[in-house]
Protein 1
Amino acid sequence: MNNQNQNPVSSVTEPAQIQPVTEDTPLSEQQNLTAEELSSLKQSRRIADQAAKQRKWEKRQQRKKAQEAEERIADARDAESRQAMHEQYMSEAIAEARKAAAIREVPIGCVIVRDGKIIARGYNRRNTDASTLSHAELNAIRIACRTLGDWRLEGCTMYVTLEPCPMCAGAIVQSRLDEVVIGCMNPKAGCAGSVLNLMQVPQFNHQVKTTKGILETECSEMLTRFFADLRTAKR
Ligand SMILES: [Zn+2]
């Protein structure tokens, strides 16, 4: 082993430690600089430029992150107020369902909202009216059409305690409702995703936005209690 080979850069790096050349050195004073000093000055300016760029980039990233955080907070506030609004109208649908329970009908209730106003209410009256057609949704749609003087319910949102059956889902699509907000799902007959999803069939000329699970527990417990009471009464 040759001793000289052990530190090959030391002889090259030492002359580069030339002082005092800084990035702030005015051009006028650079006239007398040696080639090495000039190269060192250029190098230090490159480093300073890169550092400045890096600082700018970091600041931009910080601003971007702060903006995104603000947007997330605003979105969360919007979602919160939307949720509160949905719950408020679903409570009205639950009140309709209680009217059905009071006359020993399966407790399903519905309201239709337009421009922040309830324009129609309905509850299940199938036995009372002795009619297959007397579901909460159809009863409310009938009233809404009468109120608006139009079969089209564009701009309207329906709140219903139970996922609509095929007949009501069909009527909802036909009436061109904008949105249906559902309390609890109906795995045995629901047509907003459980058995079928008639709300968003791309081949139909109208699709209905669906929102699920609003006051779900209250809506489903109301049904469970009704059927439990029915079984007790039969014994
Ligand atoms: Zn129905």
Protein 2
Amino acid sequence: MSKILKEWEWKYQVFFDEEVQRKTLAFAENLKREEKALFLKQLKFYKSFYTIDVLIEALKNKNLNQKKVLEKALENKALCAKTDQSIYELIKAEINFESNEVNNKVLKLLDYSLETDYDVKFINYLMLCFHIQDFKNIIEVIYKKANQKQETADVREIKADKETILLEFNEFMNSLMKNESLISDYGSFDNSDYDVKVEIDSGYGEWWDKDLYEEYDRDTLILYSNDETINSNDFHYTIIHEVYPGHGHFFRTVKKQNDAIDTGASLLIEGYATYTEINSLKSAYTNNLEIAYAKTIINALNLNYDVLNKGSIRLVNQKKGYLESYFFGCFAIEYYVKNKFGSPKSFLEFLSQSNKGDFYKLW
Ligand SMILES: [Zn+2]
């Protein structure tokens, strides 16, 4: 498994991190001619700017020379993208380096970024990844979905202690693995060799494939318990997204010894997992989720900061494409499955024979 780009956050590292730059370029050499051309354009997009959050992360990265990072930021001030006023204080609170000189310089750059006219829109990345007609069709579908009616979803609270979570997980996972309609749509899930851990942190869950990420030596599912109880819907659809038919099933099915995989291709990887959330076990909850996702992606692409929450604004403004990839990717996968592949299973079969990246345009 040597053709894997394991730097899954390369899009937000490549501006300042030369080692990540080197690895992305080496990865490109594994691709077919057209894929390579497209990947290099994607790389160019993410090297054409930096944001203050991207800079702060680089400055906090122990593997990088802080002085060099700051020099590069100052030399390339013109490529510092605009910061939205509404998240100024949030970002400022994180400028807390040991050196006052560093703090002052970053603060100055932050102030500068409020005033600059230079901004980079994620929609430009999408224009690289999709044929214009497909893009228009997907947008049209998203607007229709945003106008659907909300329904009332049944919900049960689950106690969030470790034992209950593991019990609930096993029970629900077994029901998914025996679900005939999922098996026929996606193929069966044949991986029982993975660890399940319950941890306290933000979010719902994460799946780490042992071959694709440095973080774990065994396939690992992390489930998060942050409160006294969790909502059964959030819990179940997290398992769908993370394990089956989401990430765990996806990686298991599509990774092949000789194919290249860009783990940073979030339009594909997160798009697919989010697609499984709203298409596996249809319910009032998934209907509402679909509406919420459609509205969020419309607001994110239109930069309607006044209706997004601060956390979303920060992602849209500072980590371009991070949030959008889940939702645009989800509706894009739905569109391609419907119009090109016929079923999720044939989509996965197709991918298992190809290199894996944000290559929608080439399908
Ligand atoms: Zn995910």
Protein 3
Amino acid sequence: MRATRLHKRKLENSGMENQERLLDLALNKYRLSPQVVAAYKKLPRHLFIKRSYSMDEMYGDYPLEIYRDEKYISTISQPSFVMLMIDMLDLKPGHKVLELGAGSGWNAALMGEIVGPAGKVVSVEIIPSLAQETKDNLSFLGIANVEIISGDGATGYPPEAPYDRGIFTAGATDLPKAFHEQIKVGGKLLFVLKTQSIDLLLLLIKKEDHFEELSRLSCSFVPMKGQKAARITNDLDTLRDTQGKLEIYPNFKKEGRDSLFSIT
Ligand SMILES: C[S@@+](CC[C@H](N)C(=O)[O-])C[C@H]1O[C@@H](n2cnc3c(N)ncnc32)[C@H](O)[C@@H]1O
């Protein structure tokens, strides 16, 4: 049922050439795993965009706005970077994933494809109408292992915890404690940290009482909204000058340490 509907809409929209062109571009930029490439081929991006963009725009390697009002903005992220992020998470079949920021649901669907029927993706979206639209679209496409939750992702989603992986698709100034509580020890989190100068994509590993940085990239994401949408107060300029790795103590103070960040 799912494959038939996807295939039919794929043909109707004849996006194949654009899809392949974009994949070539992504593969020229990054070394991507076969799993991510297979998921990308199965889930054409245009099926997740409900605004009127041309096929060229929907397969351009840049983010597209999919929602805007006085309070909120949402985009479907830059495709090559979405694929890179999913690869960095090192997803395995059977994994359970928590995403903050469902947006179009494309990222969640790609992850759902990789974790397979034995796994699950729970994706939280703060814009209620967008959450509903995305939920309806995933159901139309027959994607059963991705659940869209309407709400503030700062509290995670305890009913499905613990998670093997977590991912932010909006930039935060603080790492919500819920993500530390709900990700398994040894699990990984891709966290987007907004600083005064740049956004950092941090790949973190969960330890008993904190997260440790495994790697980082610069990036650009829409800001996180809701209860943890604090003003940007941290400034990591000095950290970027060092070879140091971050340790992040989410929302709670460790002996003598009242900052979220410290260099090991
Ligand atoms: C870059 S967009 C998401 C891209 C998305 N993953 C996709 O594949 O289309 C970031 C999303 O995060 C949502 N967001 C921002 N703050 C949030 C919060 N506190 N909880 C849940 N979602 C949030 C925004 O409304 C927006 O839809």
